[in-house]
Amino acid sequence: MKLVTAVIKPHQLDAVKEALHTLGVAGLTVSEVQGYGRQKGHTEVYRGAEYTVEFLPKIRVEVLTDEIDVEKIVDAVVGAARTGKIGDGKVWVTGVEEVVRVRTGERGLDAL
Amino acid sequence: MLRGAGREENNPRGGSVPELDSGATAWILTSAALVLLMTPGLALFYGGMTRSKSVLNMMMMSFGAIGLVSLLWVFYGYSIAFGEDVGGITGDLSAAGLRGMLESGTEGGIPDLLFAGFQLMFAVITVALISGAIADRAKFGPWLLFAGLWATLVYFPVAHWVWGGGWIFELGVLDFAGGTAVHINAGAAALALALVLGRRVGWPKDKFKPHNLPMVLLGAGLLWFGWFGFNAGSALAANGTAAVSFINTQVATAAAVLGWLLVEKIRDGKPTTLGAASGAIAGLVAITPACAFLEPLGAIALGVIAGVVCALAVGLKYRLKYDDSLDVVAVHMVGGIIGSLLIGFLAIEVLAGEGNNGLLYGGGIALLGKQALGSVAVLAYSFVVAYLIGFAIEKTIGFRASADAEVDGIDNAEHAESAYEFSTTGGGGGGAFAAAGIAASATPKETTEPVSEKVAG
């Protein structure tokens, strides 16, 4: 099993959700996060005093999936989240040892 | 506001107890209410500029001033300011408790008690103005103690000097609605307190971004609105002087907004919301002493100068390393000085009285000299006494909050409250990161590259 984690621009969330839905992904977890990559941040000025806002608002999307579907999911997220501008985000895949469905106690692939 | 010696002039009927002028009375009643509204407006203006964890303490300093100073005014404040003159320095206590005023007569057509009420609002906001210099780090109880002592030892006597027939008044210094008595006075005290309390933890390197700019604009808007009562109400009648003051207040403020934005556009690359609000206040402050003495074009010139100079004066605190949190010195002290001095250049005799033409209208330097003397005297007196009171409080009961309380948030430490509840796990609303977290993680920058290059794509 794999965990696909994507950090994307907030306004691309709907497109990513739609793309995953089309693929038949049953569920996903979304959280508001902050961070920066190459885009660094931006500067704000208050009565002449400058502040660099380093951390920008991002959305983290997490999807637990079967190994077979990983590539399709990654492609779908990347395709939907891309605007071509700096700051589009990143997607990475990590291995998952065990998954348990809380309601039933099912484990492994059954729990996905 | 020339209650002290302008009695006969204000009273066309010539008697000491003229009939009530219902038009004037209605306008001053309204004006008094408008001036009161300025203090909650100030609370919003100041509150929006603080961090979200100290907004309540900021606003409480204004509301505390309303509560305390209103009562002191009745007890003895009015009497010290406007009672019978004692040696040009203070009023006597003949009107303490406002006793005997209930059935007393009218002067200039308005009830004496209404004049006392109108003036009460000035005392309240003058004290509240000071609090902006000590945002984020002043304890509330000691603030109230300071407010009471400063009002007693500084504001009440200075109001007497300037308006109540005291020595500055007798000298012929012109201060229509409070350039010296209110703004230089409060600004100098603010500077003193900023020095006594010292810099905030992390200042100037850390982040002290305003947490709510719409609130700042709302507060500035209420101040602007209330200021018509402040300035036009100071005519103490519904007459031509009130009309001149009203128009000049509007156009000087408008010009100051543009002046401040121009400085920002040139210096920082972008005209900002905070700059517009600040420019408005700077213009209102500067036109205050002068509003009844200038023609509208003079008021516009005064406004532009105030906007530009006050915007530049904000930078002083970074150079001189005093942490005047919300720029009370740059806006009120500097703005007040600009307004008071420009009377010496821009006043016209028709409005300001015989022999009071400014330099630009063919008058001599005497008026400017008097204005400067009045400004310096009030500035020095207020600074010294405020410093002594603040120092005494700091050394005894402690004025400044502990570093821990300051970092955690003065609201919680002093009032056991927090202004906003964002936590999704604590029963409040959502959006914690978007509302609070981003600001909290910002770090200031030392360099001054153009803004546009750093805006992320």
UniProtKB/TrEMBL annotation, chain A:
Q: Which Pfam families does the entry link to?
A: P-II (PF00543)
**UniProt-listed GO biological process terms:** regulation of nitrogen utilization
Spell out the SMART domains in the cross-references: P-II
Q: Which InterPro entries match?
A: N-reg_PII (IPR002187), N-reg_PII-like_a/b (IPR011322), N-reg_PII/ATP_PRibTrfase_C (IPR015867), N-reg_PII_CS (IPR017918), N-reg_PII_urydylation_site (IPR002332)
Gene3D superfamilies listed in its UniProt record:
3.30.70.120
Modified-residue entries (O-UMP-tyrosine), positions: Y51
User: Coiled coil where?
Assistant: none
Q: Which key words are in the record?
A: Nucleotide-binding, Phosphoprotein, Transcription, Transcription regulation
Gene Ontology cellular component list = cytosol
The UniProt GO MF terms for this protein read: ATP binding; enzyme regulator activity
- Which family does the record assign? Belongs to the P(II) protein family.
How does it associate, per the subunit comment? Homotrimer.
Q: What is this protein called?
A: Nitrogen regulatory protein P-II
Organism, as annotated: Micromonospora phaseoli
Organism classification: Bacteria, Bacillati, Actinomycetota, Actinomycetes, Micromonosporales
